[in-house]
């Protein structure tokens, strides 16, 4: 049976955001008060506030999870999508309590997470499932779905070596087909940690081809991921990485939650916006037949990306 969560939409107070210098007034699309806003990012928390990223990672020697948490607090979203690698280095429960919980933990009641590879450094991602509880879906499974406003949202577990695989006949993909067939929302968003398409260190990964093909066949609209510690937006594309403005899925890689930065390597087809030096969160307003997006950077950063899209349903 599909797990369903519903939230009351939170408003966005543009003037307040501008006054505290988080974003300039008008740099994010105007949000209708009746439409829910979600905030999303992955690759978030070091073990403690003063922990440092690994030596081969770019940017400040201090993790920035507190700065991105301030963005969420100002945004006042209806839901927070944590896109995996919520807690470094191993996703142990003690690490969650000393790191993530002291910043992003303020939004735990409205967070719907997906597991990352670092969560599975602890056997069976036990720390992750213990920390998030029922919000992470059925214990030990890692994937679930819920409705928010007029949208259907699906959290997937892309740690295929841990959960029985991600191929076309895997239990997860069979569940995904059934979940999509049972839902009739006009708009669909899916999210998991390791992206299907990426221009940075981990590159595009065909392991998740079955996820993308299944979602594309069901006319899904948006996919979110993390894993590469950067921000990247792809124009709507089909499963073969061909531009498809009418039916393609728009993908956002938002590995900007605070851990560190990765450099871009070979730029993939359809990549239209990128930053490898900015921490921040992606804000999405979920309209009945479309969405607005805005990447909101931490205070002091200037990179932004904003726009609107229409749903296929």
Structural domain count: 1
CATH classification, class level: Alpha Beta
Assign the CATH architecture: 4-Layer Sandwich
Based on Cα principal axes, name the global outline: globular
Keywords:
313 residues, 16% helix, Purple Acid Phosphatase, chain A, domain 2, 7-stranded mixed beta sheet, 5-stranded mixed beta sheet, alpha/beta
Task: Draw up the topology in text.
Blueprint: H1 14-19, E1 37-41, H2 65-75, E2 79-82, H3 93-98, H4 126-132, E3 144-148, E4 151-155, H5 171-182, E5 187-191, H6 209-217, E6 222-225, E7 231-237, E8 249-254, E9 271-275, E10 280-287, E11 290-297, E12 305-310
Parallel strand pairs: 1-2, 4-5, 5-6, 6-8
Antiparallel strand pairs: 1-10, 3-4, 7-8, 7-9, 10-11, 11-12
Helix pairs in contact: 5-6
């Amino acid at each position: 049976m599909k797990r369903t969560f519903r939230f009351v939409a939170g408003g966005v107070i543009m003037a307040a955001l501008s006054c505290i210098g988080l974003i300039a007034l008008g740099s994010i699309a105007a949000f209708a008060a009746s439409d829910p806003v979600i905030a999303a990012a992955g690759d978030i928390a070091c073990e403690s506030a003063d922990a440092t990223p690994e030596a081969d990672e770019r940017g400040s020697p201090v993790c920035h999870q507190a700065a991105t948490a301030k963005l969420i607090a100002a945004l006042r979203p209806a839901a927070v999508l944590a896109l995996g690698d919520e807690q470094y280095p191993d996703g142990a429960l003690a690490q969650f309590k000393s790191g993530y919980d002291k910043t992003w933990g303020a939004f735990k009641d409205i967070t719907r997470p997906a597991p990352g590879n670092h969560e599975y450094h602890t056997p069976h991602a036990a720390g992750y499932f213990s920390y998030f509880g029922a919000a992470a879906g059925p214990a030990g499974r890692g994937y679930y779905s819920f409705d928010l406003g007029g949208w259907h949202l699906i959290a997937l577990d892309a740690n295929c070596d841990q959960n029985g695989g991600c191929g076309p006949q895997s239990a997860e993909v069979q569940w995904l087909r059934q979940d999509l067939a049972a839902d009739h929302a006009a708009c669909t968003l899916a999210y998991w940690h390791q992206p299907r398409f990426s221009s940075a260190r981990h590159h595009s990964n065909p392991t998740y081809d079955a996820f993308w093909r299944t979602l594309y066949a069901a006319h899904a609209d948006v996919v979110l991921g993390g894993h590469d510690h950067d921000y990247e937006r792809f124009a709507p594309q089909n499963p073969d990485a061909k531009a498809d403005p009418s039916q393609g899925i728009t993908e956002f890689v938002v590995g900007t939650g605070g851990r560190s930065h990765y450099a871009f390597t070979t730029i993939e087809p359809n990549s239209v916006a990128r930053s490898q030096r900015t921490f921040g969160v992606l804000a999405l307003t979920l309209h009945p037949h479309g969405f607005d997006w805005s990447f909101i950077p931490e205070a002091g950063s200037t990179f932004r990306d904003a726009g609107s899209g229409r749903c296929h349903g």
